């Protein structure tokens, strides 16, 4: 069994232990803060709070952009610090075994680069599993089932869907129309309609808030005309309207999997539905639009944000022949 499962996402990194559950669920941000003795590494929530507030000489980095690793050195540093903070005492005598998530359409070169970076960061044996398959495991689905099953994973950087049968992917689709693009749409709406400049964090908070309440939301930012601070009250319907074009593009891209879906799998998906996971699964109106476009019921699991990492932790105990990502 794997020591840990690591869902290294564009927006959030979640680490899960097979027995202890989620031990880390924080933004995927690393800050190298200059000090008299060199540098101090800040990770996760602590680092995210400093974005836009760093002095000259500080480095703010995200190990994953748009679902892809762009800076291998940064990934090594990030994973090394993450491992140091989340490792249990009994792991320190050896290099822990980990299962990491990867995009469903990752190339062999991208997979190899991620594995090598993880091993250089201090991990021992490293396996990779596409995020939708990991989400399936985390939701309690049986990947070896003879019925056709489908899982969509919409995170900050990518939106993906995989249809599989007996552990083998039959068809898949992915796109970059995901949570970060929704956040940008909210920022653009506030700037154009209310003359208010928002930070990424403030726009993301509005997007998340709109998924959990119908009450008006407060947006704090800088007035575009005067440069002075200003607070604007925003209706939830405004946020939904702002992100709707992004959602439609994502749904259209993911829905293309229907072109390759075996006809024999249609009754299976009518019965079992499509599982919707990922940090943006609750963003309005993702579920309803996806259900309308696909024609199959769409189900959101109890823990959509962490089910990928939970599945990765479980995957370490499965025979490799049971899971074939492509």
UniProtKB/TrEMBL annotation:
Main subcellular location of this protein, as a coarse class: cytoplasm
Pfam families membership: MreB_Mbl (PF06723)
Cell location: Cytoplasm
Residues spanning the membrane: none
Sorted UniProt keywords: ATP-binding, Cell shape, Cytoplasm, Nucleotide-binding
PANTHER family associated with the record: CELL SHAPE-DETERMINING PROTEIN MREB
Family in the record: Belongs to the FtsA/MreB family.
The protein, known as: Rod shape-determining protein
